[in-house]
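debug: dumping io for the single-chain case to check the tokenizer round-trip. Nothing else runs in this session.
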Amino acid sequence: MKNKFLKRKFWFKSILALCLVCILVLGNASSALAARSGGRIGGGSFRTPRTYSSPRGGYGGGYRSPGYGYGGGGFGFPFLLPFIGFGGGGLFSILIFIAIANFLVRSFSNAGGGESGYASSQVSVAQVQVGLLSNARELQSDLNRLALEADTSSASGRATVAQEASLALLRHPEYWVYGASESQKTNIDAAEAKFNQLALGERSKFSEETLSNVDSVLRQAEDKNLAPSQESSAIQQRSESGEFIIATIIVGVQGNLNLPDVNGSEDLRQALQQIGGVGSDRLLAVEVLWTPQAEGDTLSTNDILAYYPNLKLV
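debug: decoded output
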């Protein structure tokens, strides 16, 4: 009888412990998921730049691939025709002059490439992250408005996105708590993979992208329909609990973009100014990501430690 009672007591304790574990795990998971709604603005392409674009009034018209043909203007057959019959070489002489002409064309192309031609095959992939106190509520409004209005399908529009997102962050230095930056120069083939790696890494931290504008395709989740009193209470609770907003800007840029390591607010300011100052002629792609995006969602200190270990105090 005593053994039977002990067995029941053991099973009761085991079941109770299991229930407590489930409640804790599911409760924390639910809380974490609610804290990580995200916004995203992005677009661009890492297509290989044209090898050569001839200047107006130069030799040949428009784009030419590295392996030029013999005709079509420039140094082709029209250049060689006056030499036919001279030198006694016949067809052999023509072939020699064709070879010389091709050599001259390529030499002139290489010489002109420094001014107007060969686009740099070197690309910098850079990222800046800023962690702000959730009191900076205007930042979310600025980024939400930018996502709704931005033209991310054009080069000038994407440059505006990088500039406006950087500017929105620069306007709130009093709320900066964390910061980080990185930049890497690589060839254009590897740059796209690095850019995607950084963007996917940040997007994977969201439970849901509640607002996105990518290549001018706008997607927006339904509002949570908080009553005004509930919304005010949620904002007040966030402000009092020391919670945060994390914003990330990732760019792919032709040529060099060396960002300073962030060890203080001045380094962070300089990194934001550099990444926001990239012109449309150099900017290949951009991603702006922030969390939380949905009103009432939160991002706690524990979330920062778990998902953003690279951030430094500024």
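debug: round-trip ok. The chain has two domains: 34-47+120-313, 77-113.
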